[in-house]
Specification:
Largest sheet: 6 strands, antiparallel
CATH architecture of the largest domain: Orthogonal Bundle
Strand order of the largest sheet: 1-2-3-4-6-5
CATH superfamily of the largest domain: Transferase(Phosphotransferase) domain 1
Structural class: alpha+beta
Number of domains: 2
Helix content: 25-40%
CATH topology of the largest domain: Transferase(Phosphotransferase), domain 1
Strand content: 15-25%
Distance between the termini: 21 Å
Oligomer: single chain
Radius of gyration: 19 Å
Length: 297
């Protein structure tokens, strides 16, 4: 992978890079200032070719097509996608910058104090996250990479924001395996359900599975690999958290091994959670048929 871009670099004679926020196998994320928007902060995702030194025209078109889908997402708890561009054989995607703390960091802070998230906190977290999933599912989009790392508690209103966008991972995987016949496999082991990790197939219930696993991790302070029995494909987490039978039943159903045994939609899970007692969750539009669902990890 090419070296990170230095702080101070100006991209497109517009975006002034301030610092590297993070990097992974699929690319890097930078904090930048947009000179065309009064130096407003933005996040820029860099997409670097994994093989070769530059992208093919087909790859660039694929990147633009997927980014156009993300551009249509309008939700206050999803950073707005602003633009894409290519420079020096690298592709970039610009989105709003969210100032806050990831739930992974929040959990780590709790662990240092020998504490985890309470049932009340996790119920509120679920009630605030489910409308976000309802929004993307109604558009035929499956996220596929929900985890504590990819949800940020926004500083100004303390709402959870789904920050990770999967066009980069999606395109990189397709380019790495251009002749693959099965769907691309994106997701975190332990958080993504088996059908997604093994075959790349993902459904609305796959996102609900990952959200439930995230909730259990917040409640127990333990990672999925410590809670899931790989042989029997069953979860053993109740002894590590003090929760009501009602919440435990909702999470267990959402984390069922077979997709057909889980909640099939956000509205089903919301109803079971009794979300109306907290922040009301609107009735959702029935998601498109699975064959029409897109995947955003």
């Amino acid at each position: 992978m090419a070296t990170p871009l230095p702080a101070g670099k100006l991209l497109q004679n517009r975006y002034h890079l301030k610092q590297l926020l993070g990097q992974g196998g699929f690319g890097r994320t930078y904090l930048a200032e947009d000179r065309n928007r009064f130096n407003e902060a933005c996040a820029i995702k860099e997409f670097v070719p994994q093989t070769g030194e530059h992208f093919s025209e087909k790859a660039t078109q694929l990147f633009q097509r997927e980014a156009n889908i993300l551009y249509q997402i309008e939700h206050p708890q999803i950073p707005k996608f602003q633009a894409t561009f290519e420079e020096d054989q690298r592709l970039f995607l610009v989105q709003d910058y969210v100032e806050g703390t990831s739930y992974r960091e929040l959990l780590n802070e709790r662990r240092q104090q020998n504490m985890n998230f309470s049932e009340a906190e996790v119920r509120q977290f679920l009630q605030q996250m489910l409308p976000v999933l309802a929004h993307i599912h109604a558009k035929g989009i499956i996220h596929r990479d929900i985890s504590p790392e990819n949800i940020v508690q926004r500083r100004r209103d303390r709402l959870p924001v789904l920050i990770d966008f999967g066009v980069v991972k999606e395109v990189v995987t397709r380019l790495e395996m251009p002749d693959a016949t099965q769907a691309t496999t994106v997701g975190k082991p332990g958080y993504a359900p088996s059908e997604q990790m093994q075959s790349g197939r993902a459904y609305p219930s796959s996102d609900l599975y990952s959200l439930a696993v995230t909730a259990v991790v917040l409640l127990t302070g333990r990672e999925p690999q410590d809670l899931l029995d790989d042989r029997n494909l069953t979860w053993h987490w109740h002894q590590y958290a003090s929760v009501s039978p009602g919440l435990a039943q909702v999470l267990d159903k959402a984390m069922s091994y077979r997709p057909g045994d889980r909640f099939q939609s956000v509205s089903e899970m919301s109803q079971a959670l009794g979300a109306g007692a907290g922040s009301p969750i609107p009735r959702t539009v029935a998601p498109p048929p699975t064959s029409q669902m897109r995947t955003v990890a």
